[in-house]
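assembly run, all chains below
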Amino acid sequence: MKIAVLFGAKSFEHEISVVSAIALKKVLNSEIVYIFCDFNRDFYLIPTDKINSKRFSSGKYKKDKKLEIKNGGFFQKSLTGYKQLDFDFVLNVIHGSDGEDGKISSILDFFNINYIGPRIEASVLSYNKLYTKMYAKEIGVKSLDYTVLNKEDSRDIKLTFPVIIKPSRLGSSIGISIVKSKGEFDYALDVAYEFDNQVLIEPFIQGIKEYNLAGCYADNEFKFSIVEEPQKEEFLDFDKKYLDFSRTKRVNEAELDASMVEKLQDAFKKIYGNIFKGALIRCDFFVHENEVYINEINPVPGSMANYLFSDFEDTLLKLSASLPKQQKIICDYKYINSIQAAKGK
Amino acid sequence: MKIAVLFGAKSFEHEISVVSAIALKKVLNSEIVYIFCDFNRDFYLIPTDKINSKRFSSGKYKKDKKLEIKNGGFFQKSLTGYKQLDFDFVLNVIHGSDGEDGKISSILDFFNINYIGPRIEASVLSYNKLYTKMYAKEIGVKSLDYTVLNKEDSRDIKLTFPVIIKPSRLGSSIGISIVKSKGEFDYALDVAYEFDNQVLIEPFIQGIKEYNLAGCYADNEFKFSIVEEPQKEEFLDFDKKYLDFSRTKRVNEAELDASMVEKLQDAFKKIYGNIFKGALIRCDFFVHENEVYINEINPVPGSMANYLFSDFEDTLLKLSASLPKQQKIICDYKYINSIQAAKGK
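ok done. output:
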């Protein structure tokens, strides 16, 4: 199998996508074709044997072969025209905007390119934390209470501190603050509004348990990772999460009784539903007083959460054989023809 | 102003998009550049003076100039390379999938092309009727009660007939049936599942009033159309709606008292919010016992609902001057550089 790892793009998480993509080289035995989308959204073919983070930070990648995305795939200009890049499927490893907000899925769908990654609806429902909550409510999965605040709204609202403030639309802890008192509220809001014009405010529950579970639907069944209890110091900030994205070593399983693991897997199944088919996702849950709450859905998790799976590559390849098909649509110009016939033309 | 009307694409509503696009020629004085996306998703530049529906149904458009979409715009191959097509903004007139499901918005956003039309989130929230209901609930706009049914679910559910069955993800009345008794239920479900693997079942309320209101946010205010009470015979089927898409004549305003018009406009404003900025949308409301319910949001309404506006072109041009900007994101490779520095490389 030849896997095209697609990474980079115009995102606050551009750099962690670079790190994620490079981490995959260590964990995959399949042949990798690296497709880099730079910050200007131009595509480049990066030689797999030469990939390292400096190639991108130094701008050296600009000397690599440029690619164009068109109907059917990625193409390299050659003397005789365009040569199609050969691979079996794209693995979307673009974190944050472009990769997780629906843009890349749309483009790959539009141009009929086979890919592992969230489809458009899955992207929008997970990228916007408010929509994640709406969706969770609809399918019967709990999430923490929240207040929505828009940039133009009055800040004079009633809150019980401590609270956690999150931009609606960013991952990787960017722009997130824990606010312990009213005095800190304004500044934290300013920080969050730097990244989005809408924020969510949730109660910050001291000592709440956090559990991550990754998985996908492939071969007519759910394939689950182990459950991890992420290390946390209040919560991971961007620097720490960043390092997190380069993880390639297996982690220890959380110490949980079987019934709690089942509860987490049940919530995962409800969330995944038909909507997330085609993607390997990581759900970050809270557990409070024995109840499971969805915190966030990562439809393109850091380094694809490889470190949580007993056989990551096998899971990925099985998923690649279970990708959702696009809906069959026919167009026979029946209506236009019948109108023309009626007109006697 | 030069308006690029983008139409066609891979959609059950491909043909009505052709009709919508042609209708616009009659109502706009601005110069129009017609960009046709055919059923294979190849783009063509159609001469404005030669456009007619037969050009598409006969396949004659294939002799027109082919266009490629790339970073910055649409391009025509020339002897010396690529020539960029000149226009001020794209008007997205693709109905149904591709145009209203987020694909076209994603592609235009990704390639930095200025456009009137729903952005990704707006597309997903309006294209999927279940998400429209979730969204309406969140922002405090009523919608009719509903039951969600997936293809794999048991059909043995309790219902009070008559009900209306709708595929979750299609517009233009495709696949919709009114079911008067249990005996008709199975067949209607089969029809709906032809188009989507998820359906919504709503009570069918005899004599419910239907009102359409179009509008957009431009020039720092809402621009509303008149309210129309669409003609209906139980409800419009695809053939009738199809003819509806070619409308260019102003319609009569519904006879409503001012307080009801205000109620409809208030519901429109809540729905439009920040999410639909950049789009001219038509909201189809129900009114039952003096309460307003959202039925559906059309983010790319038939012939852009031109027939509802007192000055359609003026509204459109003002909207084109108020398009949302993409978020500013910087990438300075700060993290990668700091890691490299720490490594001493």
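Chain B has a mean pLDDT of 92.

The longest helix of chain B spans residues 258-272.

not gonna interpret more than that til we talk
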